[in-house]
Amino acid sequence: MSDLKAQIQGIRDAFNQALGQVEGLKGLEELRNHYLGRKRGIIKDLLTDLRSAPKELRPELGQAVNRLKQAVEAGLSEKLEALKSNVSSSKEDGIDLTLPGIAPELGSLHPLNIVNRDLIRIFERMGYEVAGASEIETDFYNFEALGLTKDHPARDMQDTFYVSDEVVLRTHTSNVQIHLMQEKKPPFKAIMPGRVYRKDADITHSPMFHQVEGLVVGEDITFTDLKGTLEHFLKKLFGSDTKMRLRPSYFPFTEPSAEVDVTCIMCGGKGCRVCKNSGWLEILGAGMVDPVVFQNVGYDPETVSGFAFGLGVERVAMLKYGISDIRMFFDNDLRFLSQFN
Ligand code: FA5
Q1: Ligand 1 pocket by C-beta < 6 Å: which residues?
Q2: For all residues of the chain together, what is the average pLDDT?
């Protein structure tokens, strides 16, 4: 009798110890089977042993086994609740839920797309439409119609990738001007972003780069309109303190033409390494549309006038973010790109 009682107590102690060491649901299930299993469980064995105990002691021993069974069941369900509510301490199937999660890597806009969108947005707010054309272009749209005849020395200004004698990878977005003017009647104003190509490669020049072209055509469009538009644009882009200046220049498709400078965004115009101590940075080319271009698209230069401008997106992005090597935009190095999140 006392043997069986001592055995029951031993089982209870062993169960409590094992229960304390259980760490997960799988271990708990194993413990349940070990003690309460219908065929080979410890308590089932005890009940079998009970049958051979003296008859007069059986009720008391039976009660003791029942109490053990209830204690085991209570212990198991208590532990189950604890494991469920404290999942953070659970280690199931090799997954440690206490470890910090692995955050998914979020993509972000490429810095050139950020700048491109900013540029477009500024002009859209001024009522410009957005237009585009093919990057593979005929000689006519890329050169001829813009006043760059076959023997024109200014063709050398843009080192060209030729697909064939008459087909090129466009060297600028000015080709879109011609398509647009052929398709539309004035007045209109449009902005034309896109990829362009030149045989040109160093730390500030890339064989593929992006330009944004602007074109405004109508009656009585003057150089003052050009100046006011660019001033507004550059202040929106670089800040309201930005100043602008125009220098006489030459483009075959504009007359007069100008290079447009802004006060250096690094030093505010005082002079630094970036602006080579001049206080100014060249930012875009512009001018009044040459009457020859209007004639080439069938417009009457006596009744319409207009202005055009073009800038390099990489150049703006390099200035805005202080990037010294243009190749960083195209290396696809995540250490660089993730800084623009
Ligand atoms: C032009 O391409 C003219 N079509 C711009 C224009 C349009 C003038 C309308 C007047 C009226 P330019 O060759 O200067 O101009 O190029 C414009 C800008 O493109 C440059 O200021 C520069 O920022 C950028 N650029 C030129 N070549 C490269 C290159 N290889 N890599 C990166 N950016 C370049």
Answers
A1: 157-158, 172, 174, 198, 200, 205-206, 209, 211, 213, 251, 254, 285-287, 308-312, 314-315
A2: 92
